[in-house]
Amino acid sequence: MPRLKHPRQSFTFEYRLKVIARADEIGNRAAAREFEIDESMIRYWRKKKDVMTKLPKRQRACRTGIAKFPALERTLKEWIISQRENSRVVTTVMIRLKAKELARQMNVAEFIGGPSWCSRFMRPSHSRCLALGRVTLS
Predict the structure, then answer these.
(1) In degrees, to the nearest 5, what angle opens at C-alpha 67 toward C-alphas 63 and 73?
(2) What gap in Å lies between CA 111 and CA 75, rounded to an integer?
(3) How far apart are CA 102 and CA 111, in angstroms?
(4) Dihedral of CA 7/9/15/18: which sign?
(5) Is 99 exposed, middle or buried (0-12, 13-18, 19+ CB in 10 A)?
(6) Measuring CA to CA, how many Å separate 38 from each of 31, 35, 46, 64?
(7) Residue 100 contacts residue 110 (beta carbons within 8 Å)
(8) Which of 54, 84, 87, 106 is buried deepest, with most CB atoms within 10 A?
(9) Helix, strand, coil percentages, rounded to 5, for the chain
(10) At what angle do helices 92-105 and 70-85 cross, to 10 degrees?
(11) What's the pLDDT tens digit per position in 55-76?
């Protein structure tokens, strides 16, 4: 018999931890039936349990990414700031080329420095001073 599709739902970490605790008592499959969710979700949540316990209980998304190359990104950020202080334009292509150059100097072999890396690096979460197209007048 084909399974019916449920609409996508998001659950708080508090709810997920409650489901995990119940699954520890009665098993994944029984907990899935009780809470009317997929058994695979319970297995996935159990793998992520230690991460979920450290995050706020009301949070729903597990965004815990950290920089893979923090020293390189810190040096690159300093370079961008110095270029901006000297009133030079800094494009994403320049950032990527400089990042690749710094990776060679720091012997970081696995660094690729593609367009998607650059867009993630330029996000406001890294720093307000990195946003392209912003002109500050003194």
Answers:
(1) 140
(2) 14
(3) 10
(4) positive
(5) buried
(6) 9, 9, 13, 24
(7) no
(8) 84
(9) 55, 0, 45
(10) 130
(11) 888 888 877 667 788 899 999 9
Q: Residue 136 burial by CB count (10 A; 0-12/13-18/19+): exposed, middle or buried?
A: exposed
C-beta neighbour count of 119 within 10 angstroms? 10
In whole angstroms, give the CA distance from residue 109 to residue 1.
51
**Per-residue tokens: 96:** 């990527």
Which residue, chain included where needed, has tokens 């979460």? 125
Question: Would the pTM of this model clear 0.85, i.e. be above it?
Answer: no
Q: Is 45 helix (H, G, I), strand (E, B) or coil?
A: helix
pLDDT, one tens digit per residue, over 108-131 is 888 898 999 898 888 865 554 555
The HSE-up count of residue 118 (CA atoms within 13 Å, CB side) is 17
